[in-house]
Amino acid sequence: MHNFHHFPIESGAGSSNLIAVIAIIISVLSLISSIYLIYLTKRLEILYQEFESLCIKNVENIFSGLDNIFDQNELSLASDHRSHITTIMTELQGFLISLRDSVYGKIDVQSLIDIMESFTEKIYVGNDAKLLEFKGDYYSTKLKIYNSLYNHAIEKEIGILLIFKRKRSI
Questions:
Q1: How many domains does the chain fold into?
Q2: Residue 20 lies in a domain
């Protein structure tokens, strides 16, 4: 005659609460990591756009003068254009030095100057050489400079490869 109601002890109630808490923790961590990745991606995009507008576009503008010389005067003697080529290369060197001194202090300008001087020296070698003979060297020099600038941006300014370098060294 007792009106006691016995409720059976649910053995699964404790474990389902634990699973729910773990699921919530995982969801929160996923949300935080997603937000961080979105932030990091946007930050890298902004840094790249800044580097592109400050460095690469200006280098392209300087190179456009050399592009015109090499495209329009292929059959001319290289000796006729030495002073223009040297002037443009000097302008590029000055721009890179000022860029290093003002914004990107980690640019290895000396290696870029070495690349440019190597090319300029080739232009001064033969007096009767046509500009067409140096066109391949010019494009090779241009690619080396762009490669060096992009590697600099990726490794030092933007820092994308730091993650991969840490993994490789482990």
A1: 1
A2: no
73-87 per-position pLDDT tens digit: 888 898 899 999 999
Phi, psi for residue 107 in degrees, rounded to 5: -65, 130
Residues 169/114, Cβ–Cβ less than 8 Å:
no
Residue 128 has what DSSP assignment?
S
Q: How far apart are CA 99 and CA 18, in angstroms?
A: 57
pLDDT tens-digit readout, 128-140: 888 899 999 999 9
The answer to whether residue 145 is domain-embedded is yes
Beta bridge partners of 130: 77
Tell me if 34 is assigned to some domain. no
**End-to-end CA distance of the chain, in Å?**
73
What domain range is 91 assigned to?
A: 44-169
Q: What is the chain's alpha carbon radius of gyration, rounded to the nearest angstrom?
A: 30
pTM: 0.73
In a domain, 162, yes or no: yes
